[in-house]
Amino acid sequence: MRDLRLDAGLTGAELSRLAGMHPSKVSRIEHGVQAPSENDLKVWASVCGVEDRLAELVAAGREVEQTWIEYRRELRLGQKRIQSRALGVYQRADRARIYESLHVPGILQTRGYAVAQFTLHARHHGLPIGDAEAAADIRLGTQRLLYIGSPRFSFLLEANVLHTNVGGVAIMNEQLDFLQHVTGLPGVAFGVLPLGRERTLFPGEGFYLFDDREVRQELWSGAMRTSRPDEIAYFARSFGALHRQAVYGEAARDAIEEARRRLHAR
């Protein structure tokens, strides 16, 4: 928005006067503090003489609104509600490519692991602890998709995921057992990026790629979702590069057992 104003040769004060906007609103929009309404975009484009770009600006504004979801706002729905929506995301996909660098992907979690993780989230975000059990039960409902062949799943886990103790030794043993089971499922590719091996692509934040339609990524303070073709192509290329560094089959099962040995050696 600032670039449009500058390209039009206008100062902030001039745009404020011509658009009938308070100067502080112009400043907030240009600094990303306040999202412009579609009417704001229409007025701004008219004042800057770029009415032909209005459709592009409106589409970009909607994309930004959909792309970044703040956890504080999202978590007001409760962890149960958030999990209830996950099943539909998977059901609409023919192929799901999932990379995780920090924790076991939700659809692969045992109940004990899921309860432990939801409890950690509840404590960190000040949510009701009692929701953890119900949220875990809902999350486990998505696991049936692993057995029906739709969508097809490709999982890539950094070895660090296997070594992060969530919930204690007994819960981790059960979780590692289930991951061993998953490595043998038809229609499921399960890869591990081993510790200590020279990397051709650095580890990064986990992401979930559904077909060539949507990518989702969770960060500390929020979540990113986008359907932009250039973003999807970037994550698909990244998944391919990570896939080429991963081990599968017996080597992946060996990595799981190595994590179990370290767990018991602590």
How is this fold's topology laid out?
Layout: H1 2-7, H2 12-19, H3 23-30, H4 38-47, H5 54-67, E1 68-70, H6 71-74, H7 79-91, E2 95-100, H8 111-125, H9 131-140, E3 152-158, H10 159-163, H11 169-182, E4 188-193, E5 207-210, E6 214-218, E7 222-226, H12 229-243, H13 250-265
Helix pairs in contact: 2-3, 4-5, 7-9, 8-9, 11-13
Task: Give your account of this protein's structure.
The protein is α/β, with parallel strands linked by helices and 266 residues long. Helix content is 52%, strand content 14%. The chain has 13 helices and seven strands. It has helices spanning 2-7, 12-19, 23-30, 38-47, 54-67, 71-74, 79-91, 111-125, 131-140, 159-163, 169-182, 229-243, 250-265, and strands at residues 68-70, 95-100, 152-158, 188-193, 207-210, 214-218, 222-226. A seven-stranded mixed sheet has the order 1-7-6-5-2-3-4. Strand 5 (207-210) and strand 6 form a beta hairpin. Helix 2 (12-19) packs across helix 3 and helix 11 (169-182) runs antiparallel to helix 13. The longest helix is centred in the C-terminal third of the chain and has 16 residues, at 250-265. The protein is elongated, with a radius of gyration of 23 Å.
